[in-house]
Design a protein that fits this description.
It comes from Marinobacter salinus. The protein is α/β, with parallel strands linked by helices. The chain is 29% helix and 25% strand. A 5-stranded parallel beta sheet has the order 6-7-8-3-9. A 4-stranded antiparallel beta sheet has the order 2-1-4-5, with no helix packed on it. Bound molecules: adenosine-5'-triphosphate (ATP).
Length: 212
């Protein structure tokens, strides 16, 4: 069996003196899609931000490829892609400029590749329009284009289906499955009824916490 990319051991997170989760342990294996589930306020976004290294309000252990994530920080950040529940798009910039900004810190990518990715998310003809003139779904698609040029093995995706139409949802689902088939791992939160073959789940908010 493949080694886990990411392991959480007895994670606990408290916010405003309320325990969001405790004794939460799971492994994220290559070749899997894992959905974080739970009602509003149960801590899905918080957990994803903890996994991405964007929230320090937790205790327990996080391992990256078998070693403490804190000692592997650079390697972890190089191999992880996080998309937050807000599209994170700058309204004055065009989709091409935004996508270039989303690639910051990675190998430079030619404009042609950025434009092809935007085409691939249905934004052909909108690449050079300021994002403030795009719809909510189109702005989300600018951020999603990042997935089409992602080579990071671990994707942490918070509510990426928000504002996306049925065709777009099907395309994202296919992309998640493709990433897993290529040996990557995806952790996703969504209120959309996501059902993928073999999908794992982490249940928050009073349910069982699955050992994946
Ligand atoms: N920065 C913060 N400071 C204090 N409490 C916070 C902070 N961020 C979130 N919380 C609290 O943590 C709890 C979990 O929030 P979180 O956004 O993780 O839930 P969620 O499961 O993603 O919810 P939703 O399904 O509504 O998106 C909420 O009660 C929220 O008020």
């Amino acid at each position: 069996m493949s080694e886990p990319l990411l392991q959480a051991v007895n994670l606990q997170c408290e916010r405003d003196k309320r325990i969001l989760f405790r004794d939460l342990s799971f492994s994220i294996l290559p070749g899997t899609v894992t959905r974080v589930e739970g009602p509003n306020g149960s801590g899905k976004t918080t957990l994803l931000r903890i996994l991405a290294g964007l929230n320090d309000a937790w205790s327990g252990d996080l391992l990256w490829c078998g070693d403490s994530r804190s000692t592997q920080r650079e390697d972890f950040l190089r191999n992880m892609l996080y998309l937050g529940h807000r599209p994170g798009i700058k309204s004055l910039l065009t989709p091409v400029e935004n996508l270039r900004a989303l690639m910051a810190g990675r190998q430079p990518v030619p404009d042609r590749v950025l434009r092809e990715a935007l085409d691939g998310t249905g934004l052909a003809g909108f690449q050079d329009v300021p994002c403030r003139n795009l719809s909510a779904g189109q702005q989300r698609r600018v951020a999603l284009a990042r997935l089409l040029i992602a080579d990071e093995p671990l994707w942490l995706l918070d509510e990426v289906f928000t504002a996306i139409d049925a065709n777009g949802v099907a395309a994202i689902e296919a992309l998640l499955q493709q990433r897993a088939a290529e040996g990557g791992a995806v952790v996703v939160t969504t209120h959309h009824d996501l059902r993928l073959p073999g999908m794992k789940s982490i249940e928050l908010g009073g349910g069982q916490n699955d050992e994946c």
